[in-house]
Design a protein that fits this description.
The chain has 359 residues and is α+β, with helices and mostly antiparallel strands. The protein has eleven helices and eleven strands. It has helices at residues 2-18, 20-24, 27-35, 44-72, 77-100, 121-141, 164-168, 256-286, 290-295, 322-326, 330-354, and strands at residues 110-116, 145-150, 154-159, 173-180, 189-200, 215-220, 236-241, 246-250, 300-303, 309-312, 318-319.
Length: 359
């Protein structure tokens, strides 16, 4: 039965994301079980959370086993549909919460930027394809999408859904496309690269402070298609952050005030991303480039010739439905989820090992 198969898969992902076997053998839980009381002692809160995570997983697992037993005794899938749907919803919610706990600002909307790598027109086209894929996916999951930048080599969109940062943080990295180049008259196979950056969009002043003295704000007349499309007022805004050299240009709105507000949000997000990248670089240096070795230079490969496939190099997940992934549909859900589970597993494993696990 398909519903039960999906349930079993999601339960397996929940177990991996939470490192359920390691939690079950956690010294704090074992000690609490021996004492018969998880509410006492200096680590009582952590022990209680570990117990809650294990009990939640085991309760869902028992309910899934009961459904399988009912199916084996002759109940048809329609008979079990309501129970399976309720249980799947509970499992998905638990999985989302388990993976989100390791992501800073997980509930925030995010800024998602796709930049073309080296390779001229092919890479520029690939960056556009990736941006369209994420825009379609974000529109499908709800919450709203707003394009902030659409140039030849860079595309930025604001994803407004609750939990957008949790949904897309794992997508940051280098994405590789292999296909027959539509820009090559000889029809040769070409490899293109694009980089994805994902940054939580926080309220101004949250997370990092921008000194107005560090800004050079310029206004100018935004471009248009000509005729009535030309904006006849100086509504476009360019903001330069002098210490970092980051420049943001916004001209999507007809209001200078709204363009300035958007530019400041993007600048804030990019400064946060710069700070995060610097921290990651320093951490990698301290651990002999462990981060680079863990995630690789390419996050994911999309192959459209000589066969179709999408492979996530970090999680190991692969699918032959490359077109469905690029359309931003359900298949992309599974690709993204595989990476979220993989990174949650790594984070939970490390936290359990060094004694900093919390739920």
């Amino acid at each position: 039965m398909r519903a039960l198969a999906v349930l079993a898969r999601q339960l397996s992902l929940l177990g991996r994301a939470s490192c359920i076997d390691a939690l079950r053998a956690h010294p704090l839980l074992l000690a609490a079980n021996d004492d018969g009381d998880a509410s006492a002692g200096p680590h009582a809160r952590t022990a209680g959370r570990i117990r809650a995570a294990v009990e939640q997983h085991d309760r869902i697992a028992a309910a899934v086993a009961d459904l399988h037993e009912l199916a084996d005794t002759g109940f048809s899938e329609p008979d079990l549909a309501d129970d399976a749907a309720r249980l799947l919803s509970e499992t998905d919610a638990a999985l989302s919460a388990t993976t989100a706990q390791w992501i800073p600002h997980a509930s925030s909307p995010c800024l998602l930027t796709v930049s073309a790598g080296a390779g001229g027109a092919d890479s520029e086209d690939w960056a556009r394809m990736l941006a369209d894929m994420y825009a379609a996916h974000a529109s499908r999951i709800g919450g709203g999408v707003r394009w902030l930048e659409q140039s030849a080599r860079a595309h930025s969109l604001e994803v407004l859904a609750d939990g957008a940062t949790a949904a897309y943080t794992g997508e940051a990295g280098v994405h590789r496309l292999v296909r027959v180049s539509p820009f090559n008259a000889a029809g040769k196979r070409h490899t293109s690269f694009a980089a994805v950056a994902v940054t939580p969009l926080l309220e101004e002043g949250e997370g990092i402070r921008i000194d107005p003295k560090d800004l050079d704000v310029q206004v100018f007349r935004s471009g248009g298609a000509g005729g009535q499309s030309v904006n006849t007022t100086d509504s476009a805004v360019r903001v330069v952050h002098r210490p970092s050299g980051i420049t943001v240009v916004c001209q999507q709105e007809r209001s200078q005030h709204r363009n300035r507000a958007t530019a400041m949000r993007i600048l804030h997000a990019r400064l946060l991303e710069r700070e995060r990248a610097q921290a990651a670089k320093e951490k990698a240096a301290r651990h002999d480039s462990a981060a680079s070795n863990a995630f690789g230079s390419q996050l994911r490969s999309y192959v459209l010739h000589p066969y179709h496939a999408v492979k996530c190099h970090a999680s190991g997940y692969s699918t032959p439905r490359a077109t469905a992934v690029l359309d931003g549909g359900d298949e992309l859900d599974r690709v993204i989820e595989s990476l979220r589970v993989h990174r949650a597993h790594l984070a939970a494993s490390a936290a359990i090992a060094n004694g900093t696990w919390v739920s």
